[in-house]
Amino acid sequence: MADLEHLEINRYRRELEHDVRHLVKKYCRIMSWEVPELDEVAAGKLIFQALRQALDEVERE
Predict the structure, then answer these.
(1) Which phi and psi (to 5°) does residue 21 adopt?
(2) Cα(20)–Cα(57) distance, integer angstroms
(3) Cβ contacts of residue 53 below 8 Å, gap of 6+?
(4) What local confidence, expressed as pLDDT, does residue 2 receive?
(5) Statement: residue 57 has pLDDT above 90
(6) Residues in Cβ contact with 23 at an 8 Å cutoff, skipping those fewer than 6 apart
(7) pLDDT at position 19 over 60
(8) Residue-wise burial string across 27-41, b where 16 or more C-beta atoms lie within 10 A, e elsewhere
(9) Other C-beta atoms within 10 Å of 51: how many?
(10) In angstroms, rounded to a whole number, what is the distance separating the alpha carbons of residues 16 and 55?
């Protein structure tokens, strides 16, 4: 990747992190609708696993 691309993606790194945090909170909230006694730590781990799998799948495409 060229230097310009590295510089450009670094500008968005905080925004990407914010978006990931938002996605984890969103899906944790959705899971809590179905699981009232939701273990948020365990749910967070499952959500991160699912996000990693989704990223891998999209990257393969």
Answers:
(1) -60, -40
(2) 17
(3) none
(4) 72
(5) yes
(6) 47, 51
(7) yes
(8) beeebeeeeeeeeee
(9) 14
(10) 13
In the block, tokens 């968005």 appear at: 12
Q: Taking all residues of the chain, what is their mean pLDDT, rounded to a whole number?
A: 92
Confidence of residue 29 (pLDDT cuts 50, 70, 90): very high
- What's residue 1's pLDDT? 54
DSSP assignments along 38-59, one per residue: --HHHHHHHHHHHHHHHHHHHH
Instruction: Pull the structure tokens for residue 5.
Output: 């691309």
Residue 46 token pair? 């499952």
Which amino acid belongs to residue 47?
I
